[in-house]
Design goal:
Elements: E1 13-19, H1 25-39, E2 46-52, H2 64-72, H3 89-92, E3 95-98, H4 101-108, H5 114-117, E4 120-122, H6 144-171
Parallel strand pairs: 1-2, 1-3, 3-4
Helix pairs in contact: 1-6, 2-6
This protein binds 4-nitrophenyl phosphate.
4-nitrophenyl phosphate binds at residues 19-25, 52, 56, 138, 140.
Length: 174
């Protein structure tokens, strides 16, 4: 999976992670990616945000089960407040990484042109154990094990994704 090139060279490469509610999967990915980008010296070159396709939880902090899994692994989940993706995000972000096929359909439905639709990709396309059509399963209705599984997938995927971002940022996009 190739990362789409930046739309505006005068700003950091802009990446949005999107799930359904923006309180479990995508904020987990945001927190992990932010840490990895900082460790890789890419904090100024790449910015990350997250959003949900739904509006039910806008303004709320992370789900306490997701926050607890993150805290257990040494991350700080406290700054998150949920937001909702809208069509303006196709201008504001260079790539929109979705957590499952349903999110992908919903986000692509917001796009006004094919170019924008092509900026939507599955997060686990960068997971060595995933692929371009593989979901991060929704943990909302499950137990703590589901949240631990999500964190494991996210950490594995974030490592590869940050590596790919580093190559592009440092080596060029052509
Ligand atoms: P997320 O999980 O999409 O990973 O944030 C969910 C959060 C809330 C709901 C569903 C999934 N919900 O139905 O409110």
């Amino acid at each position: 999976m190739e990362l789409p090139p930046p739309q505006d060279a005068s700003r950091p490469y802009s990446l949005a992670v999107v799930c359904l509610g923006n309180i479990c999967r995508s904020p987990t990915a945001q927190v992990v990616l932010e840490r990895r980008l900082t460790e890789a010296g890419l904090a100024d070159a790449v910015r990350v945000t997250s959003a949900g396709t739904g509006d039910w939880h806008v303004g709320e902090p992370m789900d306490r089960r997701a926050a607890s899994a993150l805290r257990g692994a040494g991350y700080d989940p406290s700054r998150h407040r949920a937001q909702q993706v809208d069509p303006s995000w196709f201008e504001r972000y260079d790539v929109l990484l979705v957590m499952d096929a349903s999110n992908r359909a919903d986000v692509r439905a917001l796009a006004l042109c094919d170019e924008d639709r092509e900026r939507v990709a599955m997060f686990r396309a960068w997971d060595p154990k995933g692929g371009p059509d593989v979901d991060v399963p929704d943990p909302w209705y499950g137990d703590a094990d589901g949240f631990a599984d999500v964190l494991e997938m996210v950490e594995r995927t974030a490592a590869e994704l940050v590596e790919a971002l580093g190559e592009r940022v440092r080596g060029g996009w052509s």
